[in-house]
Specification:
Helices cover 52% and strands 0% of the residues. The protein has one domain. With 129 residues, the chain is mainly alpha-helical. It is built from three helices and no strands. Helix 2 packs antiparallel against helix 3.
Length: 129
């Protein structure tokens, strides 16, 4: 795999999304994208790509809710129909599962949204040409 940094006119979407989902800079894939749990760095520590133009406001939260709901709702139905556990046990397991999955996905989906905006040159990401 080559580690070439693309110019502003040739940004591929899928490699950028993979880098963003790993919470890495969508440009170089080496520098960290986030400086705390959900705070996006102003620029990459490795390649100095400006990341301050991102507009990942509520999109990652909506995507997290969508994914967690579509994963956990069928799982809840299957577990209930197949095993018929006590309601308190069922609630405890799925509450912990929903919270854990949400906490795992939220920063990764925020990184993917920022990477999508970077790859599509949205919100000022393409103005450096």
């Amino acid at each position: 795999m080559t580690d070439t940094i693309p110019t502003s006119s040739e940004r591929e979407l899928w490699p950028a999304l993979r880098k963003g989902f790993r919470c890495k800079c969508p440009n170089c894939g080496s520098g960290p994208l986030l400086k705390s749990y959900l705070k996006v760095r102003d620029s990459c520590a490795v390649c100095r790509e400006d990341l301050s133009q991102h507009r990942a406001d509520d999109g990652p939260a909506y995507l997290t809710i969508l994914f967690v709901g579509h994963i956990m709702a069928p799982a809840l139905h299957i577990v209930f129909v197949q095993f018929r556990p006590d309601p308190l046990i069922l609630f405890t397991i799925f509450a912990i599962g929903c919270v854990g999955l949400s906490l795992y996905l939220l920063p990764r989906l925020k990184g993917a949204v920022v990477a999508f905006q970077w790859a599509r040159q949205m919100h000022g990401f393409g103005s450096e040409a």
